[in-house]
Amino acid sequence: MKQLLSILFLLAFQSSLAQSADEQAIIEVSTQFSQYYVEGDIGSLAKCYTEDGKIMPPNADIIEGREAIEKRWTLPEGVTILKHKSTPVEIRVMGDTAYDVGRYEGTTRRADGSEVSWSGKYIIIWKKVDGEWKIHWDIWNR
Asked: Are 103 and 91 in contact (CB under 8 A)?
């Protein structure tokens, strides 16, 4: 009986470690996303999404597909992102799908040199594709 309990404990422990590794991988992709946005590397930012990913920005239609997502994230001439950070409140992994709920914040420098800060909340549905976590659906509002 002791052996059976030990085996069950080890299996449960391994399962929680795997989920923690997945959660950490999702946080790493979120951090990369922010880094790409601040660096203006929109091509790499777009690769954080699945090929058929969708974004749902406030007061806009659903934007579908990596190419359209890249176009949407491309900034106008002279506009830069000075800061972008997402902070997850909850990440739940269910096999090759996960959701991430949290808050985001950032600062934009406009073409005229003025700066504006912004913040809001988000929910992201993640999908594991070829062993890598990608954003599949991205919904946010202020």
From this structure: no
